[in-house]
């Protein structure tokens, strides 16, 4: 006779999460590191009751905004290379709706995150309830249905027994290398509290392992046949290299075959800056060196990248006749742009292809070209980050931090101009230490993501720092997790680089022939009383130590003080919105342009943009 235990749905979910472990390099660790939660009527009475007794083992971090909670959960998963995740719980209605952007970020970046969100009553007896959306012709439709487009797994729990299938399916999705992404469980308020006799075996301790899919031997052979013909090969290394824990295999493969490596934004820190085959970041926010190699390469081995437009220069960064071999766990990515597909794990795939091309090495002339281009780029970066007699800039701040940080410190940036500047100018001191969120490019990720990364970091490297680069625009959009970091004792070092608005979009406006409009505070026509924000005073009001500096020298001194502090520190410096941008290393990027305009500058910019389209590949 099957042994059962009577639990509510909420209690069963929590108990099941407590018993799921993962084998990471021989150590068994609970997969779920805890959760982020803001309670309301849609989750406090039932899910809150279930979480209360297990706080020591499944900690619940109190967020200040549900979107920030989701960002923090995404950063936590990224730090743990998708081997662990956090859940987010939100109340019915606006609390859950606030998670939408974070879910989209996790979906775009293929990051595991479990959302346990309140919903209206399944019985509908009290309808319409507080915060319920009513669709007159479809009473089953609500806010939670909006998550179907931004979740890899979505389910509404309509009966207690359903979680016997739904929970394992959600976890399988989050741990799958190809389908990894957010899972959403909609929990009607009444169903959360309904009880069921669950089989005890459902809660037995289980150890999971992330699948390493060996690539098909025929695909490996075809890829090898193409690679050994290459006169000018290059490797594009993406974030999937790190998720596969294949950075050592990447370096070994490149060294064995003397193939230059260029990195995507997500793949920054696959190789350290001084590796002789690290030719730099590629694409729109790349480097002259990597882009010079990319446009001349005849065979491109893409590893663990989704080849988004910033990597490919909207598909103009490569020669029209260049052949692509794509090693990726996801078939969807591997098959892009007529690539020779190798569907499988990056570590196993690199080993397999390497064995097939044993003895092959790229021509020395090609390697010398790549290294010479890289040396010129290194000199460019040195100029960018050196003060001289230039106005304050993102690059100068990056250079100060780069020179003073510990090699193991984690760098977090997102959206705006900082991803480009960090990608171009950061010199990687240790592999896997850079998190530039540019998959969904979410303003506001920086501080919340830093908090999530710091939670993960303290589990493994408590003596290292999480260093956040953010602009004033992102700071104003979502800053409340400064308080979260102080409240939870998770120290951050936050650099607020104030350029007076959304300066990178102002630059885009000017570069496309438009006038500055509604981007910089100074050029916002409805800003009739523009005032400067005292970011340091604001940060102090949230409990952080904070100071404002005027130049890179003062920034260096402030950063040293922040490193020595035991609580969150915010350092504010004004930077020039017009001068000091990194002008090198940009490939063509397609943006929507007016075909007809009264402005000659706009018409000229449109013509120039269309001229750049001549190199664009068309899906092959």
From TrEMBL:
Transmembrane segments: none annotated. Residues 429-572 form the Thiamine pyrophosphate enzyme TPP-binding domain. InterPro entries: DHS-like_NAD/FAD-binding_dom, Myo_inos_IolD, THDP-binding, Thiamin_PyroP_enz_cen_dom, Thiamin_PyroP_enz_TPP-bd_dom, TPP-bd_CS, TPP_enz, TPP_enzyme_TPP-bd. Signal peptide: none annotated. GO terms for molecular function: acetolactate synthase activity; flavin adenine dinucleotide binding; hydrolase activity, acting on acid carbon-carbon bonds, in ketonic substances; magnesium ion binding; thiamine pyrophosphate binding. One of its GO terms (biological process) is L-valine biosynthetic process. CDD domains: TPP_PYR_POX_like (cd07035). PROSITE patterns: TPP_ENZYMES. Residues 36-130 form the Thiamine pyrophosphate enzyme N-terminal TPP-binding domain. One of its GO terms (cellular component) is acetolactate synthase complex. Residues 600-620 are annotated as: Disordered. Keywords: Hydrolase, Thiamine pyrophosphate, Transferase. Pfam families: TPP_enzyme_C (PF02775), TPP_enzyme_M (PF00205), TPP_enzyme_N (PF02776). The keyword Transmembrane does not apply. It comes from the Bacteria. Residues 600-613 have a biased composition (Basic and acidic residues). Residues 220-353 form the Thiamine pyrophosphate enzyme central domain. Belongs to the TPP enzyme family. This is 3D-(3,5/4)-trihydroxycyclohexane-1,2-dione hydrolase. It comes from Jannaschia pohangensis. The lineage of its organism: Bacteria, Pseudomonadati, Pseudomonadota, Alphaproteobacteria, Rhodobacterales.
């Amino acid at each position: 006779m099957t042994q059962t235990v009577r639990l509510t749905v909420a209690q069963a979910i929590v108990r099941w999460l407590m018993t799921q472990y993962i084998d990471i390099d021989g150590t068994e660790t609970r997969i779920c590191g805890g959760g982020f939660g803001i309670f309301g009527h849609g989750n406090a009475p039932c899910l809150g009751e279930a979480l209360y007794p297990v706080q020591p083992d499944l900690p619940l971090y109190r967020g200040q905004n549900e979107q920030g909670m989701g960002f923090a959960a995404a950063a936590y998963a990224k730090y743990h290379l998708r081997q662990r995740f956090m859940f987010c719980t939100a109340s019915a209605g606006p609390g859950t709706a606030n998670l939408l952007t974070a879910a989209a970020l996790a979906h775009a970046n293929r990051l595991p995150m479990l959302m346990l969100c309140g919903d209206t009553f399944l019985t509908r007896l009290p309808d319409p309830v507080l915060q319920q959306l009513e669709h007159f012709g479809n009473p089953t439709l609500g806010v939670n249905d909006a998550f179907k487009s931004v979740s890899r797994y979505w389910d509404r729990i309509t009966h207690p027994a359903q979680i016997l299938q739904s929970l394992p399916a959600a976890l399988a999705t989050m741990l799958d290398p190809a389908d990894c992404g957010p899972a959403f469980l909609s929990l009607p308020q009444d169903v959360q509290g309904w009880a069921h006799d669950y089989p005890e075996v459902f809660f037995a301790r289980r150890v999971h392992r992330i699948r390493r899919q060996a690539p098909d031997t025929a695909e490996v052979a075809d890829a090898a046949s193409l690679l050994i013909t290459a006169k000018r090969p290059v490797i594009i290394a993406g974030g999937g290299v790190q998720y596969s824990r294949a950075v050592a295999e990447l370096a070994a493969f490149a060294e064995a075959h003397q193939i230059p490596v260029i990195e995507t934004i997500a793949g920054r820190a696959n190789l350290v800056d001084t590796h002789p085959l690290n030719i730099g970041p590629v694409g729109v926010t790349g480097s002259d060196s990597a882009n010079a190699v990319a446009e001349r390469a005849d065979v491109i081995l893409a590893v663990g990248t989704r080849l988004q437009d910033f990597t490919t220069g909207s598909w103009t960064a490569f020669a029209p006749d260049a052949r692509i071999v794509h090693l990726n766990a996801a078939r969807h990515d591997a098959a892009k742009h007529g690539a020779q597909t190798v569907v499988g794990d990056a570590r196993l795939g690199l080993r397999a292809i390497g064995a097939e091309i044993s003895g092959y090495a790229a021509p020395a002339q090609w390697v010398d070209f790549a290294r010479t281009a890289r040396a010129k780029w290194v000199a460019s970066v040195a100029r960018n980050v050196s003060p001289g007699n230039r106005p304050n800039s993102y690059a100068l701040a990056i250079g100060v931090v780069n020179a003073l940080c510990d090699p193991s410190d984690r760098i977090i940036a997102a959206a705006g101009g900082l991803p480009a500047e960090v990608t171009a100018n950061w010199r990687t001191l240790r592999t896997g230490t850079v998190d530039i969120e540019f998959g969904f490019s979410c303003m506001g990720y920086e501080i919340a993501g830093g908090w999530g990364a710091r939670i993960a970091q303290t589990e493994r490297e408590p003596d290292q720092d999480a260093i956040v680069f953010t602009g004033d625009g992102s700071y104003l959009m979502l800053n409340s997790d400064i308080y979260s970091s102080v409240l939870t004792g998770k120290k951050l070092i936050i650099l607020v680089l104030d350029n007076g608005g959304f300066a990178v979009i102002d630059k885009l406006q000017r570069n496309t022939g438009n006038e500055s409009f509604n981007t910089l505070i100074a050029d916002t026509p409805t800003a009739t009383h523009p005032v400067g924000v005292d970011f340091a005073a604001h940060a102090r009001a949230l409990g952080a130590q904070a100071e404002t500096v005027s130049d890179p020298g003062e920034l260096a001194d402030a950063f040293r003080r922040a490193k020595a502090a035991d609580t969150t520190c915010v350092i504010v410096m004004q930077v020039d919105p017009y001068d000091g941008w990194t002008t090198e290393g940009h490939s063509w990027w397609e943006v929507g342009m007016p075909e007809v305009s009264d402005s000659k500058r706009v018409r000229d910019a449109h013509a120039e943009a269309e001229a750049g389209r001549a190199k664009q590949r068309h899906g092959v």
